[in-house]
Amino acid sequence: MTSTVLEALRGGLVVSCQAYPGEPMRHPETLTQIAEAAVRGGAVGIRAQGLDDIRSIHARVALPQIGLWKDGDGEVFITPTLVHAVAVARAGAEVVALDGTRRTRPDGLSLAETIRRLREETGVLVMADVGSLDDALAAEDAGADCVSTTLCGYTAERPKTDGPDLEVLAAAAGRLTIPVFAEGRIHTPPQATACRDAGAFAVVVGTAITHPTTITGWFAAAVGADGER
C-alpha cells in the first residue's frame, strides 16, 4: 500500500528543477519560479537539489517534493550520508532521494541502516536512486519506499542508453512491490510515454524541461548541422 504522498504522484509527471553550480540559473528564487511554472504546466511533484532550494520550493509550491543533496566527488554523491538525508528531510522534502546502489556509502552505513535511522529521526519517505535491477531489488529489501532509475548508465553495471533505460525500468516494475519511478535521459514526450508503458509509477523529467543551456545546445547543433552556408 502506497502512502498518500506517493499516491499524489502516481501516473503523473515530476519535474526536476536543478541547475549546475556556476550557472546563471543556480539560485533558489529562480528554481522556485521554475517549479511554480511546472505546476502550471501540470506537474504533480517537484524534484529539487540543495537545502536552500528545497526550503524555498517547500514554502511556495503545494506539491510533494523529492529532495536530495549532491555532495562530494566520489561515486556516491546523491545524498551520500545519513547526515545529508536528515538535513534534506528537515528542509521540507516529503521524499528524500538518496544513492540506492550497492556501493559503499561515505559514512560506512549500509543502505538499510541509513533508511532505518532516517525514518526514525524524521518519518520521511525514502526514494532509492538505482543503477540496475539488482540495485532496485536490494533497495526494496533495505526498506526503501520507492526506487528511481536515475543512476542507470552512470554506474559500472549498465551501459548508458540513448534515452531512458527501459529494460531496467520494465524489469523493476515487474518484480518490485514498491513504486518504480522512471528518471534519466527522458528528453521527449514519446520517451515519457514509453516509460509509462514500461510500467513506471511516475515519470521524472529534468533537463528537457528545466535546463535551457542543454536545450539550446540541442537546437544549436541541429541548426548548425543543416544550416551551413
Q: Can you offer a commentary on this structure?
A:
The chain has a single domain (4-226), classed as Aldolase class I (TIM Barrel). It has helices at residues 4-9, 28-41, 51-60, 82-91, 111-122, 133-142, 166-175, 189-197, 207-210, 212-226, and strands at residues 13-17, 45-49, 65-68, 95-99, 125-129, 146-148, 180-183, 202-205. It is α/β, with parallel strands linked by helices and 229 residues long. Helix content is 44%, strand content 15%. The model has no long low-confidence stretch (mean pLDDT 96). The chain has an 8-stranded parallel β-barrel, surrounded by 6 helices.
Q: How is this fold's topology laid out?
A:
Blueprint: H1 4-9, E1 13-17, H2 28-41, E2 45-49, H3 51-60, E3 65-68, H4 82-91, E4 95-99, H5 111-122, E5 125-129, H6 133-142, E6 146-148, H7 166-175, E7 180-183, H8 189-197, E8 202-205, H9 207-210, H10 212-226
Parallel strand pairs: 1-2, 1-8, 2-3, 3-4, 4-5, 5-6, 6-7, 7-8
Organism: Frondihabitans sucicola
Function: Converts N-acetylmannosamine-6-phosphate (ManNAc-6-P) to N-acetylglucosamine-6-phosphate (GlcNAc-6-P).
Family: Belongs to the NanE family.
Concise summary:
This protein has 229 residues and is of the alpha/beta class. The chain has ten helices and eight strands.
Tags for this model:
single chain; alpha/beta; TIM Barrel; eight-stranded parallel β-barrel; 8 strands; globular; carbohydrate metabolism
Q: What number of structural domains do the residues give?
A: 1
> How do the strands of the widest beta sheet line up side by side?
1-2-3-4-5-6-7-8
Shape: globular
Name the average pLDDT: 96
Percent range for helical residues? 40-55%
Order of helices and strands: HEHEHEHEHEHEHEHEHH
Query: Radius of gyration from the CA trace?
Result: 17 Å
Question: What's the total count of β strands?
Answer: 8
Q: What is the name of the CATH superfamily?
A: Aldolase class I
User: N- to C-terminal separation?
Assistant: 60 Å
Structural class: alpha/beta
Number of helices: 10
CATH architecture: Alpha-Beta Barrel
Say what the CATH topology is: TIM Barrel
Query: Which segments are poorly predicted (pLDDT under 50) over 5 or more consecutive residues?
Result: none
**Which range does the strand content fall in?**
15-25%
Largest sheet properties: 8 strands, parallel, barrel
